[in-house]
């Protein structure tokens, strides 16, 4: 937890330096927060257990992603077409039900519209 606090403090110091040093060019001042963020990320990823676990998780995720068997292009295009058609039909159904409910409510019950 202390290491994460140091990382956050480095980012905060970088932001403070950006706004605190007004006599330098804005391009030079922009390097302060960038350096603070980079230093904070280095501390998190290489010094903290959280960063090590995150790196291991990303490596394992990439390994699992490479094991995925993707469907052939023909099947993927066909299933995408079915999904688009189903979404269109469902949206038309929802529009029809909404129109019916608003007609019932506003025209028949409230006599407005």
From TrEMBL:
Pfam families to which the protein is assigned, alphabetical: SecE
Swiss-Prot/TrEMBL GO biological process terms: intracellular protein transmembrane transport; protein secretion; protein targeting; protein transport by the Sec complex
Subcellular location: Membrane
UniProtKB keywords: Cell membrane, Membrane, Protein transport, Translocation, Transmembrane, Transmembrane helix, Transport
GO molecular function: protein transmembrane transporter activity
Claim: Cell wall biogenesis/degradation is one of the keywords in the record: no
Gene3D superfamilies referenced in this protein's UniProt entry, alphabetically: Preprotein translocase secy subunit
Ranges annotated as spanning the membrane: 30-48, 81-106
Gene Ontology CC terms: plasma membrane
Record family assignment: Belongs to the SecE/SEC61-gamma family.
PANTHER family in the cross-refs: PROTEIN TRANSLOCASE SUBUNIT SECE
Function summary: Essential subunit of the Sec protein translocation channel SecYEG. Clamps together the 2 halves of SecY. May contact the channel plug during translocation.
Oligomeric and partner information: Component of the Sec protein translocase complex. Heterotrimer consisting of SecY, SecE and SecG subunits. The heterotrimers can form oligomers, although 1 heterotrimer is thought to be able to translocate proteins. Interacts with the ribosome. Interacts with SecDF, and other proteins may be involved. Interacts with SecA.
Protein name: Protein translocase subunit SecE
Taxonomic source organism: Neisseria dentiae
């Amino acid at each position: 937890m202390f290491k994460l606090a140091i990382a956050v403090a480095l980012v905060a110091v970088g932001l403070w330096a950006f706004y605190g040093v007004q006599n330098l060019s804005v391009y030079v001042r922009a390097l302060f927060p960038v350096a603070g963020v980079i230093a904070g990320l280095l501390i998190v990823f290489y010094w903290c257990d959280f960063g090590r676990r995150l790196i291991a998780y990303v490596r394992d995720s990439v390994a699992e992603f490479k094991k995925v068997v993707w469907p052939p292009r023909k099947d993927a295009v066909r299933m995408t077409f079915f999904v688009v058609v189903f979404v269109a039909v469902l949206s038309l159904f929802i529009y029809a039900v909404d129109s019916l409910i608003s007609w019932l409510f506003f025209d028949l019950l409230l006599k407005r519209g």
